[in-house]
Amino acid sequence: MDTKEIQRLLDYIAKSPLAEVSIETEGLKVAVKKNSEAASIVYATPAPQAAAPVAQAPAAAPAAPAAAAPAPAASDNLVTIKSPMIGTFYRAPGPEKPDFVEVGSSIEAGKPVCIIEAMKLFNEIESDVTGKIVKILVENASPVEFDQPLFLVEKA
Amino acid sequence: MNKYQAPTEFIGQQIKYLETCDSTNTLALKECLEEDIKEGFTWIADHQTQGRGQRGNTWLSKKGDNLLFSIYLKPKLQNQPHFYFSKAIACGIIEGLQVWSNERLPLQIKWPNDIYIGEQKLGGILIENQWAGSQWTHSIVGIGLNINQEEFGDLRANSLKQFLNKSEHIPREHVFHAICQSIEKYFKICQTHQFEEIETFYHDHLFRLNEWNLYQEVESNQIFDGKILQVNEQGLLLMEKQNGYKLYDLKEIIFIFP
Question: Which GO MF term does the entry hold, naming one (chain B) (predicted)?
Fold first, then answer.
């Protein structure tokens, strides 16, 4: 992971509602915690900068889009798969079956990623995006809320 | 024409009959994506080698004795409590069995959706839904009912044949037709969101409704006297206790049988 990628990741985390993110890939481990006031101040600064060019004279415009461009790209590329209901999150189709996906798995739209069980209704959730699983945000067999992010996916 | 083909609009109209398969639900989940499969298509098996109950539980059935089938449906409950679908299917099975029997069998629904005859289990439902992201695309409703089986080992289960003390085998297709008709009725009611009708029938046939009985709370391990008041739209069990009221989720409470 190079500096640019790390910057993109931090931008994404800053904009996401997640308080804490840890990512582990081969040879790299990143853990970011976003619970202090300081953190929100740091990440709040880019916003006025990005907004400023709109009000500025056209002469300043050419420079601004170049600086602002990477941030939207980052949040566009990372998406979450959310739970469509309240229930219990299962990573495998059955107790002795292999997990649907792991961190790093490539997924296509239509590929099942988990089961959410609610009152004996077993709901197999298929991804609606194509890409790569970056992070699994919920522990197996734990309760989930409606709209809770389950997977972080880097869109292909 | 297959003798199982039901006199309905769509449920059980198209049938695939198998002597044996691993599980009708597993097969249906795979085959329902094929082109010519219409809503209501039903897979029936004489025997399942890997019949499934609730997550990981197996469902045992003697070959050729029982009704084992799975129906392909497309519920329109996107922004409604999904549990109405489960309630509607249970209502359909109960009413179908009543119509078939022409008499008032003591049929009840044990929360959340087991089919009981008296104090014994007659059948079960396994519903598997497919979601494309946040869109509920379709469901496979698996139903297993004990029709002619005579041995249940230590299980608290019974069959129609045994309960009715019949000497002859019950023709399974007759039961199947009646059930398909009633499931279709309640499924349509569910599709048009007339939930009151489902709620009334479900609670009229709810096992242990408004009776004091023994239960065990899983978290505290405590055995207590409780009275079932309602199964709410989320499917949670509302229980009156000596010291107040409490809502229970599926794995939080065990029914104690004498």
Answer: biotin--[biotin carboxyl-carrier protein] ligase activity
